[in-house]
Amino acid sequence: MDKPQIIEHINHSVNYTLFGGRWVPASARCVLFGQHAKGTGALQVLEMEKGKLQLQTEVSKPKGFKCGTFNFSSFEDRHLALGDFDGELTTWDLDRLDKAVYKAKRHTGIINCIDGAGGLSQDGAPELVTGGRDGCVKIWDTRQANDPVADLEPADPSAARDCWAVCFGNSFGEERCVAAGYDNGDIKLFDLRTMSMRWEATLPNGICSVAFDRPDIAMNKLIVTGLDSKFSVFDMRTFNAKSGYASVDEMSHKSTIWMGAPSPHDRDVFMTGGGNGSLNLWKYSYPKSRVADDEDGQKVGVAGSLKLLNNAVISTQPIGSFDWSSDMRGLCLSTSFDQTARVCFVSNLNL
To answer: Hey, CA dihedral for 155, 90, 145, 208, is it positive or negative?
Structure first.
């Protein structure tokens, strides 16, 4: 019983399709968002109380919400950014949900994914990144109205691939990068300081999620999950001109791996969520040396190893989103397509 256990604490059903859930920073509250059967957007604010999620506020909006994040906002404001099915980005004050604080519509079609940087005591400007069905990756500063501050568009819009996953990384000082994953297996790493492509690679199948183990330090590890029951962990410290970044691959879930989420309390521990309704907890271990020399005498990265710590099947439907609490080690929130949000606790994480 010394190994970590995944324990379901709260099971909360809703009457709409859940696309995501996020903890409200520095609180016992969470938000749930998604789409009603008639296509309207659902947004709920709930609080943990006496072993249940108690509804505090609920609103309906014209279009369904696909993705959301708090990572761009300060602890004082705790504004929520949402991307919807009509290509509109909005930010919300949870105490005044009648009107959006900020809105901009520059995507054509669904905003599939979103991430933030510069908020919650991170360095740099508060920014958002969105990826859409139109193949575009857009960088937003909510202090600037209407237009993105950077627009990473495909060279040929007619051949654009869906962008399914985005995340910020390397966000310290004046540095900031964005990783993006596409439906054809492409991974692209953009350097926002130099406005250049830093690295690109192609995996066999579509990319469902990308996440740096820590977004606010020099790039360390990048977790990439995909359609083919496989995920990869890239060592981002050493780049080789021939082979790129070293990686370790692992098969898991026997289905699509919808997400990979590093723990905010231990950057070597992360959770993956599968299309079979299971959560798998992993630990990454570094090799004795993370750098070696190739046959040309150039530096090349050496990937570490992965260990499955535990797993639990918590749903009959795919795990659509997962969020660790930054305030309490082991507390987590997941949503699945059985219209249920679950608050779980992972014990014994002092690894």
So the answer is: negative
